[in-house]
Design brief:
The chain has 288 residues and is an alpha+beta fold. 27% of the residues lie in helices and 19% in strands. Helix 1 runs parallel beside helix 3 and helix 3 crosses helix 4.
Length: 288
């Protein structure tokens, strides 16, 4: 492989991968997403009754964040873990239904069957040996070939350039508080630096994104509505247009504003009537 780098998170469960997915999809803009997940949930008996619902939610999250990508959702391979095995069959039975529902909704999602692996293909109770991983790779390869034959595959989309968004208040930048990735993290002004939480990208859907989340006007359109980051969801409260040297949310008709023209680090931004003041001026990003 010309680029063998990968990112792994040992022991992660479905909800933990979901928390990372938006940032990765925003950064890399993939054309194929391979998904084999749930082993740790089942092996640790973690909220097993909701595991398939959480998998369905993750598939929806991925296809929503990367609608042009092809998703390949795999069944779980055999193990010798008594904890996992007691749940694995029922979990695997649900996966084709999740895939069919996604396809019925017009999404490019396909099922990959890992039933060719046997206990002889295991290196320990859960993990395949080299022969097992080869079988898994072959199964995903067949899935990719089938997706290509169906005309699903597209070239990976180039990610929009990320840059700081500087305020009209000298030396201050648009900043995600504490580099947080949780929904509801405050967006504030802070002295300009080189952190990832001050890098923003403008997308053609009108969103401004940082840390894998969208710039979001929280629960309202009135003056004083707080601005935060939130999972990108296509809402009108996440659309921003260049306006008079700043950014305006067209649903509210109000602008991205630093309350009281405060230059204090940590001042959370808000919506306010557009007035052209320096506290509503922001450097423009080019959408991509």
């Amino acid at each position: 492989m010309s680029d063998p780098d990968n990112e792994g998170h040992s022991g992660y469960k479905i909800h933990q991968i979901a928390a990372l997915a938006d940032a990765s999809l925003t950064r890399y803009r993939p054309n194929v997403v391979t998904l084999v997940i749930g082993t740790n949930d089942l092996n640790e008996s973690y909220q097993v009754s909701t595991a398939t619902a959480r998998l369905r939610s993750l598939v929806d999250q991925i296809t929503g964040a990367a609608p042009a990508a092809t998703g390949l959702v795999a069944s779980l391979a055999v193990s010798t873990s008594g904890s996992e095995e007691q749940y694995r069959a029922a979990y695997n039975q649900a996966i084709p239904h999740i895939v069919r529902d996604a396809q019925a909704a017009g999404k490019r999602v396909a099922y990959v069957d890992m039933s060719s692996l046997t206990t002889a293909d295991l290196a320990d109770t859960l993990h395949p040996n080299d022969a097992g991983y080869q079988k898994m790779a072959d199964a995903f390869h067949r899935g990719i070939q089938a997706a290509d034959g169906a005309g699903w595959l597209r070239n990976p989309a180039p990610a929009p350039a990320a840059a700081r968004v500087q305020s009209g208040l000298a030396g201050k930048c648009l900043d995600v508080n504490g580099a947080g990735t949780a929904d509801g993290t405050a967006v504030q002004i802070w002295s300009c630096g080189d952190g990832a939480n001050q890098l923003w990208s403008a997308y053609t859907d009108g969103t401004l994104r940082s840390m894998g989340k969208c710039l979001d006007a929280a629960w309202g359109t009135a003056n004083g509505t707080k601005v935060q980051t939130w999972t990108c969801n296509g809402g009108s409260n996440q659309v921003w247009q260049l306006y008079n040297g700043g950014y305006r949310n067209p649903a509210s008709g109000r602008c991205l504003d630093v309350p009281g023209s405060s230059a204090a680090d940590g001042t959370q931004l808000q919506l306010w009537d557009c007035n052209g003041g320096s506290h509503q001026k922001w450097t423009a990003l080019t959408a991509g």
